[in-house]
Amino acid sequence: MTREIDTDASRLRFRDPSEARALGASIARTFAQIGRETVTLMHVCGSHEQAIARFGLRAVLPRGVDVVMGPGCPVCVTDVPEVDEAVALARAGVRVATYGDILRVCGSAGSLADAQAEGARVDVVYGVAEAVEIATRCDDPVVFFATGFETTAVATAAALLAGTPPNLSVLSAHKYVPPAMEIVAGIPGSRVEGFLAAGHAATITGSAVFEGFVERHRLPVVVAGFEPLDLLAGLAKLLELVRDGRAEVANLYPRCVTREGNRVAQEKLWRVFHPCGGGWRGIAQIPDGNLRLRDEWKHKDARWRHPIEIASATAGAPEGLASRCRCGQIMAGLAKPTDCELFEAACTAETPVGACMVSSEGTCRIWAQYGGHPNLAVEGVL
Amino acid sequence: MSGSGADRIGMKHGAGGRAMRELIERVFVGRFDPDPRATVGLDAMDDGAAIRLGDRWLVITTDSHVVHPIFFPGGDIGRLAICGTVNDLAMMGAPEVLGLTCAVIVEEGFPASDLERVQESMQAACREASACVLTGDTKVMGRREIDGLVLNTTGVALADRIVTDRGLRPGDAILVTGPIADHGLAILAARHGLSLEGDLVSDVAPLNGLVRAALAAGGDSIVAMKDPTRGGVASALHEMAAKSGVGVVVDERAVPLRAAARAAAELVGVDPLHVANEGKALVGVRAEAADRVLEAIRAHPLGKEAAIIGRASAERPGGVILDTGVGRRLLAEPIGELMPRIC
User: Fold this and answer.
1) Cα separations (Å) of A215 from A27, A220, A234, A246?
2) Which residue of A has its CA nearest to B3?
3) Prior bond to B69 cis, omega within 30?
4) Cβ-defined contact of A376 to B262 (cutoff 8 Å)
5) Which residue of B has its CA nearest to A127?
């Protein structure tokens, strides 16, 4: 039996080490031209943080280029009352289907995992299609607790438009990223000078969605993909725009993203959802930051179909560790996981305290997964 | 939710990572009376112990084996039990096995034909390792008092020179004897019924022949060995680095990994460096002998795809740095069970 060793990965176009070194050098040059001690850039996507931490990209950047993660983890920003609603439904005997990541996220008194341990019926699904399947197979009311940004919201919308069994309804905790960028950019004390926008969300919204933001905040936005070279090229471009004082949108992910985006997906999204104000956990009330079902979809809205008694979920909420959790500041880009006294001490992937450690998209979880201190340069070991 | 975690044994305490090491240190090491004759004793937390016997060393090791499923692609619990113990001896620099013991604990209702299959597999592995089972013990426990079958094997061997897992100095090369992560991923795939393309089979094999060849080529230049079983290469490197008081820098692109394993790891969301191997060794070699030892290992049928994957360094003692080709980061030590991504 002969077997081949796979060495392709190292030769992949978007992981080429010499290209990476060239981009690193370009970033260093631009940063030197800017001539300031620190430039803070923000990305708003757990997958970006995954790639940055996984490939050790911070070690390639000059020490003064600070790349921070903003509110880019949909599970993390799912607000406490939203989790409470899902937990209350589950405890009231309604079958709840949802993504695995949200299972252990605590509301004011417990998580869906707690409710499940008490005997509630909670199904972990990979997507809305599986929730539809569960509802098809049973007669009981099933609620799909729908979390995630516009990418997963489109999937939820498409499923509803395609037709779902009458016993299925949707508890939407979907979030819409562009308004959150507005809030984070406007936070007093924010030092963010440019944004890296998530390529996959932009495939749907199009890069044009950021044009208004750029106008209003006079900050550049670069749409970037998820391979190491995508990210380094995105950061290089963003620094150039900062250096030149140009507030504009640049699309460095043209192999997937267009200016207009996916019109069909957008049309589906807005036929089912409308934006409305609501809380993003730990960050703020964000106008138009939440996606809720439109009135014509009321019959599919779990909030309309089921009386939700939140009191049952919030009774006897514990204090303690959670009060020292700094997830909110971390998601706003104002603090790093290593600034939190709980990080990798009381708060670990096994026994998470805050949402950023629960979700595999959360900054704390990602940092813990890749060694805890992703910037070796700052650690003084390079 | 997990308030009892501190006082109860959890699955993480058996997973080969930090939690397990901390439990062993807290409960066992230093609480048994030390044996003044043992050069490598319990406190070394090495693959086995070594006692001076005239001008040679008696090496002894023991290991209990539980695996689900009992029969998996590439092996079974019997092959695992023989190879695990033979390999632990080999990692101490003792490839010539004097003998093995085998204790069997079996659940009431377990099919006798399966037990026979397991025995046949143990015998086949013994032949490959030039080892014999000399004595044993069999117990039957009631239904649900034990889960199927547990095997314990103990091995003894004589060695002229002991190789520990703490002999690295800055500059030493670190070799791996072949592609990593096949065993853990084959088990994960079998356990979760994943049908994956490619031949994802366990690498379980006795390494004493390969180690004999390496020692013949490298002699005193081979300064540290460890088999990266539970916790994978990451855990083994952390242990070697911490015990040796050096840092380790790993070149990720040099780590051999089959396409099937890479695909499976991405699918379940685990890092191949955290996944168990049962037929691979990490070998620390003085730099000047590295090529010679690599060549000797590659000449062995089990070491054809061996590679130098990193080096010991003076930076960040006890830490493991991963060079990804496009950047550098710390390689985390796995804490507990591998948790396949669920979302």
Assistant:
1) 25, 9, 20, 11
2) A351
3) yes
4) no
5) B343
Q: Name every chain A residue with its beta carbon within 8 A of the beta carbon of B5.
A: 350-351
The answer, for A210 touching chain B at a CB cutoff of 8 Å, is no
Look-up of token digits 């009431």: B108
What integer pLDDT is reported at residue A381 of this predicted model?
Answer: 43
Cβ <8 Å between B331 and A9: no
- Which among B249, B329, B337 is the top mutation candidate for probing chain A, defined by the most A β-carbons within 10 Å of its own β-carbon? B329
The CATH classification number of B34-159 equals 3.30.1330.10
Nearest to A221 by CA among A63, A205, A280, A29: A205
Whether residue B253 and residue A10 make contact (CB cut-off 8 A), yes or no, is yes
Nearest to A350 among B12, B269, B305 (CB): B12
pTM of the model: 0.85
What residues are paired with B52 via a beta bridge? B57
Mean pLDDT of A166-193: 92
Contact B321 A60 (CB under 8 A): no
- Taking every pair of Cα atoms in chain A, the longest distance, rounded to a whole number of angstroms, is 66
* Record: contact A370-B323, CB cut-off 8 A: no
Tens-digit pLDDT profile for residues A232-285: 999 999 999 999 999 999 999 999 999 999 999 999 999 999 999 998 988 888
Residue A320 has a pLDDT of: 62
User: Average pLDDT in the B311-315 region?
Assistant: 95
Q: Is B301 helix (H, G, I), strand (E, B) or coil?
A: helix
Per-residue model confidence (pLDDT) at position B342: 27
Q: Which two tokens stand for residue A6?
A: 């796979």
CB-based contacts of A70, cutoff 8 Å, min separation 6: A42, A43, A44, A180, A181, A184, A192, A195, A331, A332, A333
The boundaries of every CATH 3.90.650.10 domain in chain B are: 173-330
Please tell me the distance from the alpha carbon of residue B44 to that of residue B59, in angstroms, as a whole number. 13
Q: Do B335 and A15 touch (CB under 8 A)?
A: no
Q: What is the pLDDT of residues A350-371, one digit of tens each?
A: 778 888 988 888 999 999 988 8
- A62-114 pLDDT per residue, tens: 999 999 999 888 888 898 899 999 999 999 999 999 998 898 888 887 889 99
Helix (H, G, I), strand (E, B) or coil at B313: strand
pLDDT in tens, A312-333: 555 544 456 677 888 888 888 8
Taking an 8 Å cut-off on Cβ atoms, the answer to whether A15 and B326 are in contact is yes
**Domains (ranges, CATH) in chain A?**
75-177+262-314 (3.40.50.11740), 321-379 (no CATH)
A-B contacts (CB, under 8 Å): 110
Q: Is the pLDDT of residue B281 over 80?
A: yes
Supply the ipTM of this predicted assembly.
0.79
For residue B284, what are the CA distances in angstroms to A30, B87, B94, B310?
42, 16, 16, 10
- What part of A 320-359 touches B (C-beta under 8 Å)? 348-351
In this complex, is the C-beta atom of A6 within 8 Å of any C-beta atom belonging to chain B? yes
In chain B, ranges of CATH 3.30.1330.10 domains: 34-159
Tokens of A93: 């005997």
| Nearest Cβ partner for B327 among A3, A6, A59 | A59
What is the CATH architecture assignment of B173-330? Answer: Alpha-Beta Complex (3.90)
The minimal CB distance from A17 to the residues B315, B326, B329 is found for: B326
